[in-house]
# Entry
Amino acid sequence: MQNQLELLQKLFEIFYPVAHAKQQTAQIKSQRFVYYTSAETALSIIKNKEIWMRNATCMNDLSEVEYGLDCLRKAFISPEGIKFQSTLNDIFPNICKDIDDILSSWVPQMQAETYLTCVSEHFQDEDLLGRLSMWRAYGRMAGIALVVKSGAMLSSSAALKAYSSPVAYIDTSGVIEQINCITDNIISNSALIKSTERDLIKAYVINVFKFAILSIKHPGFKEEQEWRLIYSPSMEESSIIKKDVCVVNGIPQQIYKIPLVDKPELDYFASIPNIIDRIIIGPVEFPWAICKAFVELLRSVGVQDAEKRVFTSRIPLRR
# Structure
């Protein structure tokens, strides 16, 4: 089992060099993450001890997936993309044809079969402010920032079957650079890859493309510093995440709920007292009333030092 785990970790390093580097850095820095939302939604998350994953078709901008797919397609037929294919085909003949056939049938269904929760990296100098652009985008009448500890996104528990991915703010040339890096890794680790089952390598490469499509955004959005938690129940189903049908902004839709509880028997620790680092109340008309309400709300779900975890943003409210 340990050898298999080591193999999977090495393959992740080979085929996901950028994500691997960002995750390593985030682990070392104990990177915190933040979920910007309305006070109403934040209250629901804490009271019900769950956070929702919505379908990829319900993202803010449907063109995001099309953008990632377009960049990947152009990179794949570039000279660098051709080199990647030939390098992999030299180890496993025609494997890229198999991968292309699977992706061609799967991509049209990708949005319908994928569910996401999106957060941003949170930095120390934002502890008493938050990020103004995110307040404006997601705060509505009363914005709340739920800042969570690093384990909430970087946990090694396999029970959830949902995987974190840093968003890459790149264009086609950036995708080509990443493909070049993967090709170099394949060449450097050819002996290991040759000794690995063909189907496992095929699955890894398919997932590389899947996560690339879902995690590439236009460079103009770079200030968001987004990470995505990605769940594909049709490919890998979780015993923890539960399906439901709910109304969101007046639209009935299927969603998946991640429970914010601890399940030690599954090595899953996501209770609110364990994961909430702080709550920041955005620039609003009645900050102290909202602050007191969230202190009481945290106490009700077992947070002993609730008054030390709730803050009001020092960004002045513009009227």
About this structure: The first strand starts at residue 32 and ends at 38. The chain has a mean pLDDT of 91.
